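Give me the fold.
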Amino acid sequence: MHLALSADWDRARAAGEYRISTLGRTLEQEGFIHACADHVQLAGVVRRYYRDVTEPLTLLTVDPEGLDVRLEVPPGAAEAFPHIYGPIPVSAVLSATPFTLPPP
């Protein structure tokens, strides 16, 4: 799964593919798209990186079939995260659900 700014997801739907790695960084800049394996990882990512985001968010559930997904341990992390090498075709997104940040 991947947490996206809703505006980025809207642009991706029009373009046919999603190319944002993380907040303010593109696939080209980062080299891959950050993702979470489950809701536990997602909760940690939200706490660390999305607390101050005020724009609407969308949670993308992605079918990994046919995508280059690698479980990797980022520098400074204690667990492996899925990294998606390449754009995500809109057709690979199983669901796109509005996401509300939990209260601080």
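The domain at 2-99 is CATH 3.20.170.20 (ADP-ribosylation fold).
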